Protein: lysozyme
Organism: Streptomyces argyrophylli
Amino acid sequence: MARERTPARRRAGALAAATAVLALATVTTASAGPLVPPGGPRAAAPPVPGALSVLSGLSALPLLSGTPPRGHDVSSHQRGVDWAAARARGARFVYVKATESTGYRNPYFSGQYSGARAAGLIRGAYHFARPDRSSGAEQAAYFVRHGGGWRADGWTLPPALDIEYNPYDAKHKCYRVGKARMVRWIRSFSDEVKKRTGRRPVIYTTTQWWKMCTGNSRAFSSSHALWIARHGTSRPGALPGGWRYWTFWQHAVKGRLPGDQDLFNGSLSRLRIFARGH
């Protein structure tokens, strides 16, 4: 089994994280705009928060106010998480790293994933992409076989693809993969996940990386939920590639919860709707 290394997004400074935590006291979901993208295809895409059905045809819903549900994401770096304590501190959802490339599995995944559910958290699995290692379809198949599944039980978030800066070669942030090929790789991963689970993956990325490594492709914005990463600010900022709304926002790498700190763009009831897929 390959040794897990620390992705670049885990290396942000604690000062920026603290700034973000303070700023979140006034964040509302209205800052991201409406929750349902107008005119997006429903039959081919998973619903975004607030959609009543994949075929609903709703164009928009009223904005929400108040504090959105808090969540976090963890990997083997967190090892044994006290899930009951995390829930008591406000966690309502979590993403757990399952796999990387086709040779790494988080050795703590099973306990983390089942422990989160036992504590009453809505949970999902994510895959760290290595576009330089193998095809998107191969990595998606590996991911689904080793924890990246989904079912419409209201407790399971759709699988997520973590695609971002190359943590192993700072000179080649895009893994030596050209923009057009990167878009094809992501599409291949997404198609395989959809075939095996019935859901399109959530895409985790940063605006800068997406612009640099996909040419700011708009190929996924109408059919994939966005998990945007931006730390140390009170808002997620400009979004990449045609996305008008974010579904998850990773706003800090440290905070009250184990691992990275996240928010969901909606209410808890809408988070359950999003998890169910209808």
User: Anything to note?
Assistant: The mean pLDDT is 82. Helices lie at 14-23, 83-88, 109-118, 136-145, 179-197, 207-214, 268-276.
